[in-house]
Amino acid sequence: MGFFKKHKLSHSVPDVVPGHVAFIMDGNGRWAKKRGLPRTAGHSKGVKTFEEVIELCFNTGVDTVTVYAFSTENWKRPKTEVDFILKLLDEYLTISTEKCLKKGIRMRIIGDRSIFPEKMIEKMNDSEQRTAHLRYNLNVAVNYGSRAEICTAVNKLIAEGKTQVTEEDISAHLYTAEVGDPDLIVRTGGELRLSNFLMWQAAYSEFYFTETFWPDFGKKDLYKAFEKYASTHRRFGGL
Fold this sequence. Notes:
6-stranded parallel β-sheet, 7 helices, 6 strands, globular
């Protein structure tokens, strides 16, 4: 874990941490509204929280982080908000490769990227190619929907000539095939649902829901989630 500056870790941090954590980063707009700010201000603050939280995760011993950045359903939001989120994504992609190289993070963009501008797709491809050899895994889900992901996996199998498929076949054709399923899924903002995120992969994940809006999510909240995870006996259907 020498890639990261050392955070002062709380004594409450459990010895057992999840290998793969996924985040549904919810509540940016409500965080801004509560403060009398435009929703876009919440998204800007949310990006800073995202960078802080992934660094905390990797510094604490997590190997893989997956974040739900923009769903297939988010296109339904007001155009001004969608345009702002895409602008933030484009700006992040511009600087992400150098940041990832410095911190030892392998970047993956998961979701249907075909809808994005060609220059943005080139940035996604460049970041993935240049960081492919690195230690930690960061999956950023954009234009992502779990149902669409499963359909894409099945269509790939059909194209390969499969007439029957197994669970293993589908898992091997998902965007997350190389990093496996999340051990822990954290959702901020008070909602208690997956919202079309990693539904196949979440079959045996542990869940942690918090009322805290994503821009306010910090070290204390993260360690609470890890403590909850550490206290759970994962049986995977057994005893």
